[in-house]
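Section: Multi-chain targets

For targets with more than one molecule, the full set of components is provided together so that the structure can be written out for the assembly as a whole rather than chain by chain. Components appear in the order listed by the source. The example entry contains two components.
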Amino acid sequence: MSDDKQLDALAPQGREPLTLINVREGMFGARGDTSGYDGLVQRVQMPGATERPYGEWFDGAVDILTELLGDAADEAIEYVVVDRGELTLYIQRDHLVDVCRHLRDDQDLRFEMCLGVSGVHYPADKGRELHAVYPLQSITHNRRLRLEVAVGDDDARIPSVVSLYPMNNWHERETWDFFGIVFEGHPSLARIEMPDDWVGHPQRKDYPLGGIPVEYKGAEIPSPDERRQYR
Amino acid sequence: MSTQAPHAPHAFVEDPDAPEYTVYGSDWSDVVDEAKRLGQQRIVVNMGPQHPSTHGVLRVMLEIEGETVTETRAGIGYLHTGIEKNMEYRTWTQGVTFCTRMDYVASMSQELVYCLGIEKLLGITDDIPERASVLRVLMMELTRIGSHLVAIGTGGNELGATTIMTTSFVGREETFRVIEAITGLRTNNNYIRPGGVSQGLPEDGVEQIRAMIPKVRAKLDELVALQAKNPILQGRLKGVAELNLSACMALGITGPILRSTGLPYDLRKAEPYCGYETYDFQVPTSTDQDAWSRLILRMEECYESLKIVEQCADRLEQLGDGPVMVADKKIAWPSQLSLGTDGQGNSPDHIRHIMGESMEALIHHFKLVTEGFDVPAGQVYQAIEGPKGLLGVHLVSDGGTKPWRAHFRDPGFNNLQALGIMCEGGQVADVVVAIASIDMVLGGVDR
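Its structure, encoded as tokens over all components, is:
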């Protein structure tokens, strides 16, 4: 019911659209209700790029990283977001390992621990459907920042950071298992939570939750992802 | 599965033409055949997933030569229940009852980190009433004592020291009595909620806490007496499952294992939440970096936790009655339940209000309970010091009433990666000690 033009008109003006999380239609799970909310279309986006000054220690850290990356900095750091007191650097995947090396090794950055990698699936974000989110922890400076790498569904490949952060071994296996992101250069990227012969990647949004309808006091309650629910 | 990996692993094979296989569930018979073919050179032992000393459904695959372990691999996933996926289909409030079932030995740690994450997303971190924060700290410390006592008790039991186990569990039961009196449940409490906690203290709450402290301390003293000078226990634990600081940093190890190498890294001090900076307690460390030092650290941490519990009791007495949930009616759960004599939570005043007095209140109740509240779009990372190490949560909201993504970094999941380095080159019998000293819970590891 909603074509692209209509969606573009709904995009927030005044800043570059960033991660499109979701396009919500209607108010409820079931279509064709008579509430009048059926035609509602909402574009939900992540907080946009932040302009300097970022505040706290963020400016200094980004400056040091930019200096260390040299000419590659503009290409490597897609944009910087400061939201809810947290710093997020969107990194171009080819530069991820370099960025991590600088963040880990430079004495003024020294993010010696990577707290894993969390995948997120944004099916509406065309060309950047799969995101890998790396929280980095600096024990030396007691700081935390987040790296985010976005790749397309048809080319879901991200270089592995296991050579720099050995602790990410299982975390990358988990993200491969759940989202189908291939971490290139991982020593043995096997499934970790699901059985080896499992088909599909269960945490993706196009993978159903499953479940069966349950009868309760004579009425049939559909499984959780089939239920009529608020959006 | 390895065929799908871009680079096939050749780490353990010099000759690329040599037969290569990966040890996972379905090809176990192949491994046995291969071992038979190679003769007596190598023995592959499968341990678990249904083994009493693997702390749940952990599977360990050991390659041994005589009594020496030459290679160790851990196989997990036997308790994967898709909690994170399920949370995407429930409201933010309902999510609490899912994440509490991850690490079921330290239920409320997940509840707290999840709720702190939601509060950060909502921007209401500073609006949480102090009474709720004190109750949260109280619950965290009781949970920590319970979790450490299970670690110590089961660790002892696996070595044949049943008394250590029974003593630990009796001590843990004392904490459960207080937890049950306050939250209504012994474990999987669903007590810490976005915006506060589900209910305040019962009338004699502070007295119950005060009465519990000496009982738990007595059990801790008993455990010290049982263990501290026990030559057999020392012989089994000292110098076993060593992991030094550089290995900890490489493998992202946190919690008692990291502190046993001398680094006093504790998020309660480094990045205080819920007002931990205002409590007086120490972070015990050791430099022995072995299983024994981790056991002693867990004991010492229990004593420190009791100190915090005492301070919580004082503060709760001082604060008296009052709200334990944010004032914002669009977020706070509408009714304040109280525990009835039948053990069920109920709120007669609230029911009278919505059913007999105010239709608007009824509508509000209905909307908030069925629909939930909207959380502005964005993402946060929140970490707390769980009993087992750094417990983190990554939450993404699409602006709706349900999480777009909730990912938990369970410390056990990460720390279990160290099993290989702790066991290889050691004795077969020490594998059990290494697993116990990592102290993971498979419910949290597999989620």
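The domain at 49-231 of chain A is CATH 3.30.460.80 (Beta Polymerase; domain 2).
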